[in-house]
């Protein structure tokens, strides 16, 4: 990958994170100071360090954190697609100041709010501030998720006020408008509850780490590494897209940022070597979607599992690893088969850096990633681990610079002079903080509106009633309940409401399904369905909704980069993303794929079975299988069916699928040999 390609990809990514480069200097300073102060507050709160003799407890800490970051939300996020490419207009300053003012009011009264419970506001002033913050939350949600997300928020606000008049399962406890906004702004059911716990206790450190890694060159390093690993093989750019999106997704956890960050390089390269615009965009879409569940930094939804399910983030991270890896394996198989059928070669050797040189130049990035995983999985440092990893990154950067500066060949090089080095280091720090601020803004804009959904579901009692209804609708059929959840996630993911869909099902369907399975004979051998597995099932499928027609938001973003037809891109992405569509059913019903609390040989056996099944399935979809050659229509249909049956977690279907796949494989191999011999004759 050339330097200009890397810079171009970086510019594309930056444009998608925030408007920092377009801000006036004073606003830039405020924009950067916010994450820095938030980091200090996070550390003080985590270690319970007294500030002026007082330890930051939950309520003051949450309000203080939101106060520090409030101004940045509307400064970093544009009101429209056009405004995202221009500096903040006058009305964004008003919205930012209003958000900051509301949070200052809450902060000043935080002690009284915590002591006297303001969830039912005692006066008009309290109601007014809660209403203003609610309106600002609606606008922030619109800038992130569009009008569909605003509609969901509005329905969640209206429903508690009419719940007592609703029929059937929709009947629930009714509240007044002042009670709804009071719960939203002042209670543990609103912004002081799950959203602030996630943001202030879990996600913030990971956003900071991701921003620092990307800003300090980690994103560019992994893009180069992917090019070095896969670029020169057949179908090179497409394989680079798969590998690079996995690497980049492990840092950002954002599908859109992933598409912008890697797609700016991989999509033009794929088109240049012969891939159609739709196929190139679809590959990037599917690869970036997998990045949402690629450890160690996953999407914000993954952090919700920690609070809702009460499990360590390290367990969620470990459980997501193999299913995500299976998705990338299926993509590689399909990309390779497509390249063989269309005779697409790899990138020219001159455009592929050497792996050894790339690792030599950027060894510290994989070291830091391994350190983060070590801290989370082995040491169990939990959410403070990313802060340690940031410190290690800075220390290693300093050591590398000192070593290079002492080399004889660099002693007289002005590039390693103190002034030039200091300027370069300062610019990298600025880039890192601005990237972190951009990620934090997206999280804050989502979580400031999510409490409306929680209040509509939980405070009214609707979630409990819906749980019983869903379980009753599915009867004792786990498969039917899972299919209902699958369909709901797909529909909500299509319109960009992934977090709302997850919250909805995580507090209704997930615990009920786990309880139901404990009593079913077919699941007693495995101890029932894993709670983490059910939550990951939901997370995987809301990602799939992002490339499912007709809306397919993520596919449309990639199509805009490729100049492709959006709807056609979405259909191609559905074929390429087949593993993401099927694997969640596999790991829910086969918990060994989640690694947790499972013997290593069972993990290996189950992974091997699914791996082989996906290989047959993916090869059938792309009409070519290694060793046998091109598949005709009958062999293709049989191999797709056989691959699915082989991977399905049931002994009889696995045996049947294996027999079917072997027959199709042998038939294809013999047919291609006969055709080759006839052609030669």
Molecular structure report:
With 681 residues, the chain is mainly α. The chain folds into 3 domains: 3-195, no CATH class; 217-362 and 449-596, no CATH class; 599-681, no CATH class. Helix content is 74%, strand content 1%. The protein contains 31 helices and 2 strands. The protein has helices spanning 3-17, 25-46, 58-76, 90-108, 110-116, 124-162, 177-186, 194-215, 218-230, 236-252, 255-272, 277-290, 300-308, 313-342, 355-362, 364-377, 385-406, 418-447, 450-459, 462-474, 478-494, 498-506, 509-518, 521-524, 531-544, 553-562, 566-576, 578-589, 600-621, 633-647, 651-680; strands at residues 624-625, 629-630. A two-stranded antiparallel sheet has the order 1-2. Helix 2 (25-46) packs across helix 18, helix 12 runs antiparallel to helix 14 (313-342) and helix 12 (277-290) packs across helix 26. The protein is globular.
Alpha carbon gap, first and last residue: 45 Å
Radius of gyration: 26 Å
Range of strand content: under 5%
Number of helices: 31
Number of strands: 2
**Which class do the helix and strand fractions yield?**
mainly alpha
Mean pLDDT: 85
Note the main sheet. 2 strands, antiparallel
Low-pLDDT segments: 1-16
Q: How many domains make up the 3D coordinates?
A: 3
Order of strands in the sheet with the most strands? 1-2
Q: Which word captures the global form?
A: globular
Helix fraction, binned, reads over 70%
